[in-house]
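Structure (tokenized):
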């Protein structure tokens, strides 16, 4: 997820993530998993996901360990 520079700090990403998680609950999903970057530039994204209950996990699906990536998941 990336927010346009003109909208940084306005809560756009939080609102989108909140909407997606609510929709996932409606659809009765039990787990939401994501891949994001491991670099410092991705720290705000990782912090946002953690704020919404995501924790670090092992690679999922067809992902493999990659030093450029981190994997996170939350259970609904």
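Design, position by position:
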């Amino acid at each position: 997820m990336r927010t346009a520079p003109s909208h940084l700090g306005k809560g756009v990403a939080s609102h989108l993530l909140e909407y997606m998680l609510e929709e996932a609950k409606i659809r009765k999903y039990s787990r939401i998993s994501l891949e994001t970057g491991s670099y410092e530039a991705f720290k705000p994204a990782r912090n946002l996901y953690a704020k919404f209950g995501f924790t670090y996990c092992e690679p999922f699906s067809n992902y493999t360990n990659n030093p450029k990536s981190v994997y996170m998941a939350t259970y609904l």
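Reviewer-requested clarification: The two ends are 20 Å apart (CA to CA). The beta strands are 31-37, 55-56, 69-75.
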